[in-house]
């Protein structure tokens, strides 16, 4: 029994050491590899994040119901802006689907928050939210089970793929 425990412990230790050794090291990078910070998508994500943080820098009223909505509107807009970057830059169809879902849902929530604030006479923060128009290839125009079935079958679903 003791021998089995020692062998198991040694195996776990060596396995963990192998995983550590397999990790990429910075010194292995070659000068030709682009830095992540220089990637166009990274620059767009950073710009969207900075705009969101700037737009969230609003004075608080002391009313948690109002303050929550006033802060969440630019926060949601930031999520929409980042999702738009993903829609343009992402290669994975599931990432693009998630991004579109975020755009649609966050726009709906922004409209609800703006309406709630307007009904109470609270000045609604200006926004840059543009409505997202879903076309025939939008994931929401498809059978909702299509993506799940395709993914379970190991297929990569994308708008226009014919998987329904």
Automatic annotation (TrEMBL):
It comes from Methylobacterium jeotgali. PANTHER family: SLL0788 PROTEIN. Pfam families: DUF305. It comes from the Bacteria. Keywords: Signal. Residues 142-164 are annotated as: Disordered. The keyword Nucleotidyltransferase does not apply. Residues 1-22 form the signal peptide. The lineage of its organism: Bacteria, Pseudomonadati, Pseudomonadota, Alphaproteobacteria, Hyphomicrobiales. Residues 65-138 form the DUF305 domain. This is DUF305 domain-containing protein.
């Amino acid at each position: 029994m003791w021998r089995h425990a020692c062998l198991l412990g040694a195996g776990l230790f060596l396995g963990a050491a192998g995983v550590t050794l397999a990790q990429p090291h910075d010194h292995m990078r070659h000068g030709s590899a682009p830095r992540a910070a220089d990637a166009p998508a990274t620059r767009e994500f950073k710009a969207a994040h900075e705009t969101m943080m700037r737009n969230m820098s609003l004075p608080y009223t002391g009313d948690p119901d109002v303050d929550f909505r006033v802060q969440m509107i630019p926060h949601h807009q930031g999520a929409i802006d980042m999702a738009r970057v993903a829609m343009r830059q992402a290669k994975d169809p599931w990432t693009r689907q998630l991004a579109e879902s975020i755009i649609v849902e966050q726009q709906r929530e922004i409209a609800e928050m703006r309406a709630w604030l307007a009904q109470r006479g609270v000045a609604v923060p200006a926004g840059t939210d543009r409505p997202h128009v879903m076309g025939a290839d939008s994931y929401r125009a498809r059978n909702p089970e299509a993506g799940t079935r395709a993914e379970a079958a190991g297929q990569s679903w994308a708008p226009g793929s014919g998987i329904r």
